[in-house]
Amino acid sequence: MKPQKPMPETLRYKNYVANLRHKQPYAKEAALLKEIAGGVQWRMDAAIDALTAPAAKGKFADRAYVNRHNIMKQAAMFGRLQTTEKLAKAFSFTEEGNRHADGAVIAAFQVAVLHGHYKVADFLHAKCGAQPDYDSGDHTPPAMGWALREGNLKKISYLVDKGADPSYALVSAVSGEKHSKAVIDLLIAKGADVNAAAQGFFTPFLQAVKYRRFDLAEHLLDKGADPAKSGGEVMLNLIEAKNDKLLEKVIARGAKPDTDLLQRALYAGNLAAAEIMMKSGSIDINAQGGAALLTAIRVKEQPEAVMFCMMHGADPAVAYRTATQPKQSWEKRGDEEKVQEYLLRLIQQPPAAPAAAAPKTPKPPQP
Fold first, then answer.
1. Helix, strand or coil for residue 7?
2. What is the C-alpha separation between 343 and 319, in angstroms, rounded?
3. Distance between CA atoms of residues 286 and 312, nearest Å
4. What is the pTM of this model?
5. Cα distance between residue 245 and residue 187, in whole Å
């Protein structure tokens, strides 16, 4: 019995290569993509040989005309490790001295992880320099983004181990479609900074509050989140959501409310939030020329907002001076005269008693 020839030496293999060689580069690319999907290794190898054959003198090689991103992603999508290795060699992706991975390599790495082909991803990372946080340049969706949306702990852990930034991932984790405390715990265990700020402002805690995931916000506080990192925006969202319990906790953790936030609470009719902020001791009710009282007066059908300000020491004379100051054309309001009349009536009234503390419940007699 004759020994079996290596496949590249067989007539079938040579005929396949010969039939492709005379075709245009785009036809060779299409044939290779088809063979990768088919999964017959010798046909994939033959298509690669036809596509990467040396060019005639004075002409560019076919591989200069093909879309390397498509070819590499196709091989990665179907988990064709041997084909990926051969393509990487043919396109010189594995040559020593490459300082940055080619965009096609990065795209293939992202696709390999997306489809769970970790052996292909390992090769592209170790031999071709692919990194999870690099941009492929062809709009390939980042694997980390999809892993966070899926809540896939295996993919998240794999990408972080290969160099993905866990802190950046943590900021994104709380705003995805699937939220999980397990994802947060994994990223923190992998070294994520719980107070990391995307674009210098959007912390994971702020993202959780903005997306109304108060369960995750509470969990992040337990993990050491500092609400003061973006306190104003956090408190504004909590005022609008009427989550007074979490607002109180945020202020207790170091967030400092100001007069602008007080005005927002009064405008929204959230007097409970206004009371919590006043108790913090960081707000001067007469700051900004009595802006809080002016806002309360302009809130329609909410006289309790005015009463709230007066009970906390608002001085209508301060607000009146502000209301009667000359203004630019863009500052003028249609209700100026009514506001001034209202303030004059408040000035003529006797001062309101300061807000009294709630009476303490007497302790029951001890036995």
1. helix
2. 7
3. 10
4. 0.81
5. 27
Could you tell me which residues are beta bridge partners of residue 79?
A: none
Of residues 19, 11, 67, 75, the one with CA closest to residue 44: 75
Q: Any idea what DSSP says for residue 163? A: T
Residue 94, helix vs strand vs coil: coil
Residue 174 tokens, joined: 């709380």
Overall CATH class of domain 144-243: mainly alpha
- Separation CA 201–CA 315 (nearest Å): 36
Residue 298: Cβ within 10 Å count = 18
* Structure-token match 């209202």, residue found: 342
- Strand, helix or coil for residue 273: helix
Alpha helices of 81-203 — where are they, by DSSP H? 81-90, 103-114, 118-128, 143-150, 153-161, 166-173, 181-189
- Token readout for 216 is 């995750």
CB 132 within 8 A of CB 163: yes
All CATH 1.25.40.20 domain ranges in the chain, comma separated: 144-243
Mean pLDDT by 10 residues, the chain (367 residues): 80 93 92 96 95 75 89 97 95 73 94 97 94 90 92 95 94 76 94 86 90 92 91 92 95 93 93 95 94 90 89 94 81 80 87 54 52
Return the SS3 of 227: helix
Neighbours of 353 (CB within 10 A): 8
